[in-house]
Specification:
The complex is a heterodimer of chains A (about 350) and B (about 400). With about 350 residues, chain A is α/β, with parallel strands linked by helices. Chain A has 10 helices and 11 strands. In chain A, helix 5 links the parallel strand 5 and strand 6. In chain A, helix 4 crosses helix 5. In chain A, about 45% of the residues are buried. Chain B has 2 domains: about 200 residues, Rossmann fold (3-Layer(aba) Sandwich), CATH 3.40.50.300; about 180 residues, 2-Layer Sandwich (Beta-Lactamase). In chain B, the strands form 2 sheets. In chain B, strands 2-3-1-4-5-6 form a 6-stranded mixed β-sheet. Chains A and B meet through helix 9, strand 9 and helix 10 of A and helix 9 and strand 9 of B. Strand 9 of chain A pairs antiparallel with strand 9 of chain B, so a sheet runs across the interface. The structure holds guanosine-5'-triphosphate (2 copies) and magnesium ion (2 copies). Chain A: Keywords: GTP-binding, Nucleotide-binding. Chain A: It comes from Leucosporidium creatinivorum. Chain A: This is GTP-binding protein.
Chain lengths: ~350, ~400
């Protein structure tokens, strides 16, 4: 296993901010409601997650109680912060100390990250926005990327959510810059109670995956061949979106489609899949015809699902057939094929 | 394996007449239909079967929460912020079955104060908070029940022991038993034969799981005169298409207005109602205009009936048949006309790794058929199943005297 396909990701933030909750929902198929029973994480819980395309995620869930934080930053510092690919730092949106001690610890972590990865301390160049999961590959081999999640956004009244995130982003960015951090910081508002969690994690995962652009061209080709309007690729167990292509001919109509549709599909289908598993009849595929569209969601490779959406002049069976025919081809692709 | 076979569609008028003239109806629906005529409803054409239901009970029992969660799709957690009901409000459940639900302010046990009369009600739902001490309520409840019974002997009493989430199974049953004993005692004290002649039903409910949908389904099924006939049609369909279970859902509320007569286990209901949610939410992602979607009624608004004609006006002659091309040509071409008519209604299916299928077909803009099919039936007999379903659809619409794509106004 090359070190390139093995990526260390830190999950940090103060105690109770929701790190273990996220991890168990995304990677362990837990229900959001069941996270209420989670106990505090002691020291560090690291888990290895085999992802598609031979990617191995080393996820370090670092206990956030002050005493643990202090030891992460001092005696454990080199163990924790060395050769980190990405840091995901979680802030509790409702914490009263958001701009004081919470940020204080965060800045210390940035410092440790820089100290332990000295060669890579130059700026991580990344375009802002981050709406497209396919971007961000060029960061390969550069310094650690830092994702900041302002979490538990469900507790913030809806009308204030975006301004709260914007203010927070401006404040933290300013203080990080003042402390000497030169890298980019990516901010997302999240909650375990809606699709925002899937949105943020899809971007994190896309960032970790090599060779996504080549995968995207294969998907485009498939889209054309099957006269589809949109295709979306999901990772099988997490149901995170890995890549998607929309037909140029649909550009106008796509304006009316739900902007959050990918992460909403992740959330909805994953919840339904869990229900199927509970009755011991695991989910296999979904076919749907609505007044204007036909959609098929089916296995593409052993580690992925594909959603194909087309105008309803196209028969569901035709889409099903096209998916079946495409399987051997996609199975051979390095980007999503079986990890050896 | 049993071969499903196409059957002749029931003649429109034979079914249509039943709903307008319950007494002359032949068949198993006799009882239910007669009950409706005895309430003197058959005369008014538009609202002949418009059951009326009253929600009553102590303050904060959860009446408004139930209404909002089930009929307006409020998230259960958000019911915390519902304000006390200050005046009686009527909800017209304007979906396929139109039901009028009156939500009374808490503690109010006399609908007379709101210009409502028990005579006009088909059912009263008493919502009691299982987590509170409701003992002193029971006497008041019994007195109210007596009043209602005196005014309307046919009235149906539905007692919802509510907020049972977070209670152990044993504790739920104990609490229910206790309530039952006390209420029976109180009614007996008022008059010994009162208790025995009343229709009283008990339900354990919570807005945090499917129990509230199941309870309301049972309440409403008793109020739909056509229910017995629908059940028979569903039985027939199950037999023909190797379905293990079939539900006729009111799509937006997830209440099922009929199911086949085979025993129902809770898990089957849960997965089918989850499925209705999944496809309803999914459809909204790509059909943002409420006009195109049969699920638009899920959005928190009730006055959606005016939109129901929209999908029809979008028809084009190139619409495809719902059957798969691998299915026998014979069945599809023989009846292309009828199937094409049904093709505009949405349909979907989810395959499970056991080989079984959960399938859904739109019956009209408000009703969905959801069925659990035995392994591999769907792949092997798609055309026949679609044929039977379209026949079923016509029969259902005929029963309610509706036509495809039209509202019932
Ligand atoms: N309202 C709300 N609660 C959340 C959310 N995410 C997590 N929680 C709750 O927050 C609590 C703490 O979550 P954990 O995941 O254990 O917190 P942690 O960050 O792992 O804490 P430590 O292990 O002590 O560092 C749990 O009760 C979760 O149910 C969210 O998005 N919204
Ligand atoms: N645990 C639990 N709480 C519930 C349930 N249903 C309602 N509640 C809570 O009960 C409280 C009162 O609910 P309402 O729906 O306002 O009660 P109401 O009967 O309409 O009250 P009035 O209008 O004052 O008569 C709210 O805080 C709800 O969140 C339930 O099934 N379980
Ligand atoms: Mg933890
Ligand atoms: Mg109320």
């Amino acid at each position: 296993m090359s070190s390139k396909s093995r990526k260390k990701v830190l999950l940090m933030g103060k105690s109770g901010s929701g790190k273990t909750s996220m991890r168990s929902i995304i990677f362990r198929n837990q229900l959001a409601a069941d996270t209420r029973r989670l106990g505090a994480t002691i020291d560090v819980e690291s888990s290895q997650i085999k992802f598609l395309g031979g990617l191995r995620l080393d996820l370090w869930d670092c206990g956030g109680q002050d005493s643990f934080m202090d030891s992460h930053l001092t005696s454990q510092s080199s163990t924790i912060f060395r050769s980190v690919h990405s840091l995901i730092y979680i802030f509790d949106a409702e914490s009263p100390d958001l701009t004081s001690s919470d940020t204080h610890y965060f800045l210390k972590c940035l410092g440790a990250l820089r100290d332990q990865n000295p060669i890579n301390s130059d700026t991580v160049v990344e375009s802002a926005g981050g709406a497209d999961p396919a971007e961000g590959e060029e960061a390969e081999g550069q310094g650690p990327t830092v994702f900041i999640l302002l979490h538990k956004m469900d507790l913030v009244p809806e009308a204030q959510q975006s301004s709260k995130l914007a203010e927070f982003e401006a404040d933290v960015t300013k203080r990080a810059t003042e402390s000497g951090w030169k890298g980019n910081l990516k901010f997302y508002g999240t909650s375990i109670w809606n699709e925002t969690l899937y949105k943020a994690w899809s971007i994190v995962i896309a960032h970790l995956m090599p060779s996504l652009s080549s995968l995207r061209s294969h998907l485009s080709h498939f889209l054309e061949l099957s006269s589809a309007s949109e295709v979306v690729l999901f990772e099988r167990t997490t149901f995170l979106v890995i890549s998607s292509v929309t037909a140029p001919s649909e550009a106008e109509d796509a304006e009316d489609w739900d902007k959050r549709r990918f992460e909403r599909i992740s959330t909805m289908v994953k919840a339904f899949k869990l229900g199927c598993t509970r009755i011991r009849s695991p989910f296999s595929s979904l076919t749907l015809s609505s007044p204007n569209y036909t959609a098929v969601l089916d296995t593409l490779t052993p580690e992925t699902y594909i959603l194909v959406l087309a105008r309803n002049t196209i028969q569901p069976a035709a889409i099903e057939l096209n998916i079946r025919l495409a399987r051997p081809h996609f199975g051979k692709l390095e980007a999503i094929g079986m990890s050896k | 394996m049993q071969q499903p076979s196409p059957r002749a569609p029931p003649s429109h008028s034979a079914y249509g007449s039943t709903s307008t003239n319950g007494n002359s109806a032949a068949g198993p629906s006799n009882g239910a239909a007669a009950a409706s005529t005895s309430r003197g409803r058959e005369g008014s054409d538009e609202h002949k079967a418009r059951p009326r239901v009253l929600f009553m009970g102590p303050r904060s029992g959860g009446k408004s929460s139930i209404r909002k969660v089930v009929f307006e799709r409020m998230a259960p957690n958000d019911t915390l912020f519902i304000e006390k009901t200050a005046k009686s409000t009527a909800d017209d459940i304007n979906s396929f079955i139109s039901i009028q639900m009156w939500d009374l302010p808490g503690g109010q046990l006399d609908p007379g104060a709101w210009n409502l009369a028990f005579e006009d009600m088909d059912a009263v739902i008493f919502v009691l908070d299982a987590q509170s001490t409701f003992n002193d309520m029971i006497r008041k409840l019994a007195v109210t029940m007596q009043k209602a019974f005196d005014a309307n002997a046919g009235i149906q009493f539905e007692i919802f022991l509510h907020k049972i989430d977070g209670m152990s199974e044993d504790y739920r049953l104990d609490t229910l038993q206790n309530l039952r004993d006390r209420l029976t005692e109180e009614l007996f004290d008022i008059s010994p034969d009162l208790e025995s002649s009343m229709n009283v039903f008990y339900h354990l409910t919570s807005v945090f799981d499917t129990s509230i949908y199941e309870a309301l389904s049972k309440v409403i099924q008793k109020l739909i005169p056509e229910q017995a006939m629908l059940e028979r049609l569903l039985d027939l369909l199950c037999q023909q298409c190797s379905m293990d279970k079939a539900f006729l859902f009111d799509t937006s509320s997830k209440i099922y207005i009929a199911t086949d007569s085979s025993p129902l286990d809770n898990q089957t209901y849960v997965i089918c109602s989850d499925y209705i949610d999944l496809i309803g939410d999914f459809a909204l992602l790509y059909e943002p205009s409420p006009l195109g979607s049969p699920f638009h009624s899920r959005s928190p608004s009730t006055g959606s009936r005016s939109n129901t004609l929209a999908p029809m006006s979008r028809m084009d002659s190139s619409a495809v048949l719902p059957s798969s091309p691998t299915a026998p040509r014979r069945a599809t071409s023989a009846d292309a006309g009828r199937l094409a008519k049904g093709a505009r209604m949405p349909s979907s299916k989810v395959k499970l790794s056991t080989g079984a299928t959960i399938a859904q077909w739109g019956i009209n803009n408000n009703l969905s058929l959801v069925a659990l099919l035995r392994p591999h039936m769907m792949e092997q007999h798609a055309a026949l199943i679609d044929y039977n379903v379209s026949t079923f659809r016509e029969a259902v619409l005929a029963i309610f005297d509706l036509h495809l794509g039209q509202g019932e106004e």
